[in-house]
C-alpha cells in the first residue's frame, strides 16, 4: 500500500514535571528530552512501521534539526526525497508533560510557514500514485487546500486530521473522504460548545460528506459512515505516561487499516490499540507501534 503524507516536521523539547507551573511560577526537579515530532512526520513514520510504503512532503530548515529529520526518515524507511529545505528554522515545539501524562504544547512553526502550494505541485505525481493522502493542519491553510485539491484531481482518497484545530472553508471540506477530529477539533469545526459526541457528529455531518472518526480519549471513538454510527470502545493502556503522540499513532494505524480495506469500525479498533500503545511510552516516536505490537482486532 502507498500512502502520501503532506504535513509537518519539527523537534520537540519535552519537560516532564509533577505538575505544570502557574503564571509567574518556577518549578525545579523537571526532566528534559529532545526528540523528533510534527504530526506529518509522526504519522508517516507510524504508517511505515505498520507496513505502508510512505512518501512525505514537509519543509525543514538548513540546520542541525533538519538534518536530524532526514536521518530519521532514512532509518525509518520513509521516502523524504520531496522534503523542501527552506530559509527558516526547522519547526520547534515545547512540550510540558505532567505526572499523569497530560500535556501542553507550544509551537514555533518556522520552516512550516513556507511549505507552499508550489511544493504540493511538485509532489502531485506521488499523490496521484498513492492509495491514500494524509494531511494535517500544522501547515498553512492554502497548502492543506492544495494537497486536498490535488488528490481530488487524481482520484486519490484523502484522510484529513484537523489538528491543530482551525476552521475549514466549505469548498475544502468537500474534498475530505475521511475526517479524524478529536473532541476539541470537532468543537472548532462545528462552532459548538459541547462534548456530546452525537451532537458533534450531527453538526459535522452537515458540513462533511466524509466518513467521520471522532476520537474521544478514554471514551474511545465514535464513527459515522453517513448511514450508520457506532461507538468503538477504548483499548485500555497498560499504563499512561505521555499522551503526546496518541493521536498520531491512531491516525497512522487507521490509515494503514483503511488501505487494507477494513471497515470503519474495525479500522478504528486497530487505531485505538495503536493509541493505547503510544500513551504507555515516553515521547512520540518510541510510542509509534510496529505490526507485531498490535493485535488485528
From TrEMBL:
Its EC number is 2.7.1.15. InterPro entries: Carboh/pur_kinase_PfkB_CS, PfkB_dom, Ribo/fructo_kinase, Ribokinase, Ribokinase-like. It catalyses: D-ribose + ATP = D-ribose 5-phosphate + ADP + H(+). GO terms for cellular component: cytoplasm. It is found in: Cytoplasm. Activated by a monovalent cation that binds near, but not in, the active site. The most likely occupant of the site in vivo is potassium. Ion binding induces a conformational change that may alter substrate affinity. Its cofactor is Mg(2+). Substrate binds at residues 38-42, 138, 248. ATP binds at residues 182, 215-220, 247-248. Pfam families: PfkB (PF00294). Keywords: ATP-binding, Carbohydrate metabolism, Cytoplasm, Kinase, Magnesium, Metal-binding, Nucleotide-binding, Potassium, Transferase. Requires a divalent cation, most likely magnesium in vivo, as an electrophilic catalyst to aid phosphoryl group transfer. It is the chelate of the metal and the nucleotide that is the actual substrate. K(+) binds at residues 242, 244, 278, 281. GO terms for molecular function: ATP binding; metal ion binding; ribokinase activity. It comes from the Bacteria. Residues 4-286 form the Carbohydrate kinase PfkB domain. Pathway: Carbohydrate metabolism; D-ribose degradation; D-ribose 5-phosphate from beta-D-ribopyranose: step 2/2. The active site is at residue 248. GO terms for biological process: D-ribose catabolic process. Homodimer. Catalyzes the phosphorylation of ribose at O-5 in a reaction requiring ATP and magnesium. The resulting D-ribose-5-phosphate can then be used either for sythesis of nucleotides, histidine, and tryptophan, or as a component of the pentose phosphate pathway. Belongs to the carbohydrate kinase PfkB family. Ribokinase subfamily. Belongs to the carbohydrate kinase pfkB family. This is Ribokinase. It comes from Saccharopolyspora kobensis. The gene is rbsK.
